[in-house]
Design a protein that fits this description.
Blueprint (H helix, E strand, L loop, with lengths): L27 H8 L3 H14 L12 E9 H25 L4 H4 L5 H6 L20 E8 L5 E7 L6 H11 L15 H11 L10 E4 L8 H11 L3 E2 L4 E4 L2 E6 L2 E4 L2 E4 L15 H11 L4 E3 L10 H4 L2 H9 L10 E3 L3 H8 L6 E4 L9 E2 L5 H13 L4 E4 L6 E6 L2 E10 L1 E5 L2 E4 L4 E4 L15 E8 L5
Parallel strand pairs: 1-20, 4-5, 4-9, 9-10
Antiparallel strand pairs: 2-3, 2-17, 6-7, 7-8, 11-14, 12-13, 12-14, 15-16, 16-19, 17-18, 19-20
Helix pairs in contact: 3-11
């Protein structure tokens, strides 16, 4: 039943079709339904619904949504979920430790130079985090499926991960368009989990804490998400200009009233609360007095960007063993710490085979995929690593699996990743079932990030229907 126009790509796994071009059992029902549809009309109708819903990302442009959902077997998700929770728990333990006793650095498990050189480290937050309240309320972990079918963690996002509400919106648009026996699990409950975690982050003694979303406003690329969280959880959205610091407290004008704020759900593009010389930024002048007085907490806290450092990713499996005393349930894509002499020597011998990433970058910016780079790009990347090795990591390349995507009215393979979301609170961790699948719009392209034009797919966790 494989459409003759569907060209399997070499050296990677296609999630819907086997190597011989036949549908995988999990996808058979869905592909049969799609075979009877006008795919161009389906694509256009979904696009119109996206525009009507105001589903935008970055500079107010509608985000590309593909109607063909990605399917994950329920039994695979049952194996995957514990690994997601374990990883989020270890990373939160690392953040609390880094701004507290710093045991992992003293033990030599993670080099102290990570802390000293990370652009995500916020020294002003040292001593201000409560180890009982996870600093990263929301974690988004970027997973890729290798040619053997294993999902591995490519990157960790704990600073301010976007995408959870896009998952909800994509489900609302795509699921009604596709009938048949294949149906996804519900996403009900994610926003409720988030709202509860935000309230639980409040300082002790607040029976009815006042929480706000701190945003840049409509110019923020993820404004759709800010609006939706605010609307559904009843949280006011405020900008820094609407905040006032006074006598160790933070106040905001909420519904015409001046209210003391207990929790800030941070969704600003700005991440710095202190200057390089230690003096507070304008944002720090607003928030630090209340944070230091114990009258305010942030969800996701300032300083969580330390966990987004690409060098941190290289040590997460060691963190799991150090803090949790167990083996990692979910593997990381192997990374090389180029600031370590031995690791650098090993990487330099085969640098042309690896992926070079600046430690502080995000959204795929500055990444050089050496096997695919031009001669000039390769030469520039090698020289940059030689000049400043401590500013980069090298990572083993992963082909990224492909997934059927409607292009020009036909199904064509496009590379995909998966961003599942974990919500953490003092009571524990919980994951959204599924998450957001992102796809590259061009054939063979490996960068799927929305900030670079990538699109989104619904992610369905389903029972494996075999006939």
């Amino acid at each position: 039943m494989s459409p003759p126009a569907y060209p399997l790509e070499e050296d990677c796994l296609d999630e819907a079709f086997g190597p011989d071009g036949s549908p995988r059992p999990l996808y058979r029902e869905l592909l049969e339904e799609l075979a009877g549809r006008d795919l161009a009309e389906l694509h256009d109708r979904v696009g119109a619904e996206v525009a009507a819903a105001g589903l935008t990302f970055g500079e107010g442009r509608p985000i590309p949504i593909d109607p063909v959902p990605r399917l994950i077997a329920a039994e695979e998700w049952e194996r995957l979920e514990p690994g997601l929770l374990q990883r989020a728990r270890a990373l939160n333990a690392f953040i609390a430790d880094a701004y507290g006793p710093q045991r992992i650095f003293d033990a030599g498990v993670v080099p102290r130079r990570l802390l000293e050189s990370s652009s995500g480290y916020a020294p002003a937050m040292k001593g201000l985090l409560d180890s009982e309240v996870p600093a990263a309320t929301v974690a988004g972990l970027d997973l890729v499926r290798d040619s053997e079918g294993e999902l591995q963690v490519l990157e960790d996002n704990l600073r301010m991960p976007s995408g959870a509400c896009y998952s909800l919106a994509v489900r609302e648009i795509v699921a009604p368009e596709l009938g048949g026996p294949v149906q996804p699990t519900g996403l009900d409950g994610y926003l409720e989990m988030l709202g509860e975690a935000i309230r639980e982050a409040a300082p002790q003694g607040r029976d009815e804490p006042v929480a706000v979303i701190l945003s840049d406003g409509p110019e923020n690329g993820a404004w759709y998400e800010h609006e939706r969280v605010g609307r559904e959880l009843g949280l006011p959205i405020v900008t820094p200009a609407e905040l006032e610091a006074r006598q160790g407290c933070l106040f905001a004008r909420v519904n015409g009233r001046r209210r003391q704020v207990d929790v800030v759900y941070r969704r600003l593009d700005t991440d710095q609360i202190s200057e390089p010389d230690g003096s507070p930024t304008a944002l720090g002048e607003l928030l630090l007095p209340a944070l230091r007085a114990g009258n305010l907490r942030c969800a996701n806290a300032f300083g969580t960007g330390l966990a987004d450092d690409k060098l941190t990713h290289a040590y997460v499996e060691r963190m799991i063993e150090f803090y949790l005393g167990g083996k990692p349930l979910l593997r990381s894509v192997p990374s090389y710490d180029l600031g370590d002499e031995d690791a650098r020597a090993a990487a330099m011998e085969r640098l042309g085979e690896l992926v070079i990433k600046p430690r502080g970058s995000f959204g795929g910016h500055g990444v050089t995929i050496m096997p695919r780079a031009s001669e000039t790009e390769r030469r520039d990347a090698i020289e940059a690593v030689r000049q400043h090795p401590e500013q980069f990591i090298a990572q083993e390349p992963v082909g990224l699996s492909t997934h059927p995507t409607i292009c020009g009215g036909e199904l064509q393979p496009r590379r995909v990743d998966l961003r599942p979301f974990v919500v953490s609170s003092a009571g524990g961790e919980a994951a959204m079932t599924g998450g957001l699948t992102r796809f590259a719009q061009e054939a063979g392209e490996l960068i799927v990030n929305s900030s670079q034009g990538g699109g989104c797919k619904d992610t369905w966790v389903v029972e494996n229907l075999q006939r």
